[in-house]
Design a protein that fits this description.
two-stranded antiparallel sheet; 2 strands; mainly alpha; 462 residues
């Protein structure tokens, strides 16, 4: 059996209702959570770090589509709660407003007995996490892990979790509670998406708070920064789906999800953002640290002589643990299987917020799929950072395409192009026929580059 890495060894599932035993790991930060909280209390957020993408590009990137009015959703899908001795119906507006009271049944109508039971408990946990309910010796990160694990495990509970967080962050006059509610939203969005039915409503709710003007009268709490992070996380997780793996979420992953609100992840960001993140640590680097580190790790572990490299997936739980390490800027430690860094490297390329080859170049790529001269010209015309990152990838893959290696790995240029093309190019068409036809051209384009482009100039570039 492969040895577990440090991240996995230090995690445990914990017991329900026991929140005083585990501590969140210490993450490297340029500004501690305590300092952030102090800034909120002092009414100043001028020097706080924030989401890496500008608000303008975020607003332009994706506006909510369809019906986004949460009241409209509530009218069609809510249980009607009742209150008091005479069982007076609670209005929908009240059901969508912060409360200190418990609930006795789910907010969303359901016939699922498990969801009915879990929904009531989750609301209690949300109130505990937001300090709206007093519990002795509470470890809030353990509570967050409990909530996250339930939502990740029980698909039918996910919309209920999000609607409950929406309720507890609506008309909430307690600033510290409001901050924790948005923090919880961000954590959950790192692990599981809402259903397609609820997605636009959650998107619409978050969108309302993207502008900094909405932070007025919040005593310095930068809600818009949390909203911008959540908006981007929602877009990303609805594309990639819930966190993969058999093991339940770990404390380290939850802590990293919280940490990434003000210290963005290297996954799901733009290349410019990633280069900005590493500028202080590695000011001279021309390539993303994560790209070169994972690539070198694949080679260090003998990936060029490993059958099925980049085709055979690494153990998903080890990949998840390595992802946490990389977001902490830690070098891989106890990994023995090259498929693990290989899988994470593919994931990093695939999850770039904008594809490695920008959409504006897509048509030129598929049009030049069988023309080496034209294909190379496309690469040379890319923005500088995209050109360097793509050329580094091609130079790296050409090592595996060598005959002495491909005979062992069974991954020649055609097979490498097949597994890597989807990580470099994204067809934006909704037409299944066009997508199918372009898939073949995308693979041929990458294969043409692997076989014909001279990338020796990348040797030694970091």
């Amino acid at each position: 059996e492969k040895p577990r890495n440090q991240v996995e060894r230090s995690s445990s599932d914990g017991e329900r209702g026991s929140y005083g035993k585990r501590q969140a790991p210490n993450l490297p930060t340029s500004q501690s959570e305590g300092e952030i909280g102090a800034k909120v209390r002092r009414g100043s957020n001028r020097s706080m770090p924030g989401p890496s993408r500008s608000l303008g590009s975020l607003l332009k990137a994706k506006k909510p589509q369809g019906d986004v009015d949460i009241m409209s959703y509530a009218k069609d899908n809510f249980n009607r709660h009742k209150k008091g001795l005479f069982r007076k119906p609670v209005s929908i507006a009240t059901m969508l407003t912060w409360t200190k009271d418990p609930i006795k049944k789910p907010m969303i109508m359901t016939r699922d007995k498990t969801v009915k039971k879990e929904a009531v408990e989750v609301f209690r946990l949300i109130q505990i996490f937001m300090s709206d309910r007093t519990v002795k010796k509470v470890d809030q990160m353990s509570v967050a892990l409990d909530i996250t694990t339930r939502g990740w495990t029980i698909q039918g509970l996910r919309d209920e979790v999000y609607i409950q967080v929406i309720r507890q962050t609506s008309d909430n006059k307690k600033i510290e509670s409001l901050q924790k509610g948005w923090e919880l939203m961000a954590i959950c969005l790192a692990f599981f998406p809402p259903t397609a039915k609820f997605q636009s409503y959650l998107e619409g709710y978050i969108y309302r708070f993207l502008e900094t003007e909405t932070d007025a009268d919040l005593q310095g709490f930068p809600r818009s920064m949390y909203a911008q992070h959540c908006y981007k996380q929602l877009d990303r997780i609805c594309k990639t789906g819930a966190r993969k793996g058999l093991k339940k979420p770990t404390m380290e992953e939850v802590a990293q999800a919280k940490h990434s609100i003000f210290h963005p992840s290297m996954f799901g960001n733009t290349l410019d953002d990633i280069m900005g993140m590493q500028k202080q640590r590695y000011p001279e680097r021309r390539l993303p640290w994560i790209q070169t580190t994972l690539s070198n790790e694949v080679l260090r572990l003998g990936g060029e002589q490993t059958e099925g490299i980049f085709r055979v997936p690494g153990d998903i739980d080890e990949v998840n643990a390595l992802k946490v390490q990389m977001d902490r800027w830690e070098l891989p430690g106890e990994i023995l299987d090259p498929h693990v860094p290989g899988s994470l490297l593919k994931l990093w390329y695939r999850e770039l917020y904008e594809p490695l080859i920008p959409p504006s170049y897509y048509r030129r790529c598929v049009d030049s799929y069988d023309n080496p001269e034209a294909a190379i010209a496309v690469v040379q015309s890319l923005p500088e950072i995209n050109r360097l990152v793509l050329c580094y990838l091609l130079n790296f893959l050409q090592v595996f395409a060598r005959s002495e290696n491909s005979k062992v790995t069974k991954m020649d240029a055609s097979n490498l192009a097949m597994v890597m093309a989807p990580n470099c190019l994204r067809c934006e068409s909704d037409d299944p026929r066009e997508i199918f036809e372009n898939t073949r051209k995308e693979m041929s384009f990458v294969r043409t580059l692997l076989l014909n482009m001279d990338t020796e100039f990348m040797t030694g570039v970091v």
